Amino acid sequence: MHATRKAIEERLPDIDVVIEMLDARLPGSSANPLLATLTQGKPALKVLNKQDLADAATTEAWLAHYRAQPGTQALGLDAGVAAPARALVGACRALVPLRGGMVKPVRVMICGVPNVGKSTLINTLAGQRKAKTGDEAGITKTEQKIVLASDCYLWDTPGMLWPRISVEESGDLLAAAGSVGRNAYDEEAVATALLARVQVRHPQALQARYKLDDAALAQPADALLAEIGRRRGALRSGGRLDLQKAAEVVLNDFRGGAWGRVSLETPAEFAAWCAVAEQRDAERAARRALRDRRGARGAPRGEAPADTPDDTPADAPDDGAA
Asked: What sign does the CA torsion over 99, 100, 101, 104 have?
């Protein structure tokens, strides 16, 4: 993460527009708050990638949400389709109308969390295979420069997560989307959380994929995971259920679009999650400050108080691990 952050900071003074690639199924959760801080004041283009895998009405709500922000445009995109990809160049030029031509080319930086589809998009924009692609976090390792047009240059950066994901729901969704390294989460827990969310928002997607009746669909999410495992042959020797394999089936189906159009959050839902996380962080900071004051009063003069355990959640893995 630190190397990617440094590369972005060094490049930013020479950048006119910052494109942030978001997963259209979880736009808020896949938006990097660290990037927002680093690029504050720069014209921004939010690209909701994989829109063909997201609910159309929810995607429109997210596009309206971002377009209402100052200095920001937003587009929905399926990175494998050439025509919408070319529209990005026009959108960037519209954000900086005083740039253009060989003397003042439009300089664009593209950023996003791991596995959001940047490399696939760049290959589409460039018309050839410039960047490695794959359904795995952390494929892009170094900064790359791509000539999009004679007067439009794009710099790609490795996918970057932020140090601590304080919104619990976002952590689960990012893991489900494959943006977090596989060693950083429990696949059964993430698959169960994903099923619980889709049971409420898009139950028909699960019914169609796994041939579930109403009774099976109404089960708690952990029981539903087991049901899907049995139906999809996630079994060990002797016919015993393998929940790990069942979780892999669920996550691979979601990532591959086998459920059809599925959106996991709305702008209002994400705002509510953030409010809860901010309140939780404020309470945690207050407890930490109280412990520090108590420790300072109890420590002998000239001696620093002993360290006390912190209940701050563990840091998210950096982009090198993802």
From this structure: positive
Please check whether residue 150 is in contact with residue 163, taking contact to mean a CB–CB distance below 8 angstroms.
no
Q: Of 90, 94, 109, 83, which Cα lies nearest the Cα of 21? A: 109
Which helix H or strand E contains 100, and what residues bound it?
none
User: Phi and psi at residue 117, in whole multiples of 5°?
Assistant: 105, 15
The rounded distance, in Å, linking the Cα atoms of 162 and 174 is 12
What is the rounded CA–CA span in Å between residue 105 and residue 14?
11
Q: What is the pTM of this model?
A: 0.83
**CA–CA gap between residue 259 and residue 17 (Å, rounded):** 34
What are the pLDDT digits (tens) for 110-152?
999 998 988 888 877 766 545 444 444 444 445 678 888 888 8
Lowest-pLDDT range, 12-21, 67-76, 253-262, 296-305?
Answer: 296-305
Tell me, rounded to whole angstroms, the distance of Cα 272 from its chain centroid: 18
What is the rounded (10 degree) CA torsion for 108, 114, 117, 119? 60
Asked if 123 contacts 85 with a C-beta cutoff of 8 angstroms, the reply is no
Query: How far is Cα 314 from Cα 185, in angstroms, rounded to an integer?
Result: 12
- Cα distances (Å, whole numbers) of residue 226 to 178, 243, 262, 307: 21, 6, 21, 44
Measured CA to CA, the distance from residue 184 to residue 322 in angstroms comes to 9
Q: Are 101 and 51 in contact (CB under 8 A)?
A: no
247-270 in b/e form (b: 16+ CB < 10 A) is bbbbbebbbeebbebbbbbbbeeb
Show the domains of the chain with their CATH numbers: 2-156 (3.40.50.300), 186-255 (1.10.1580.10)
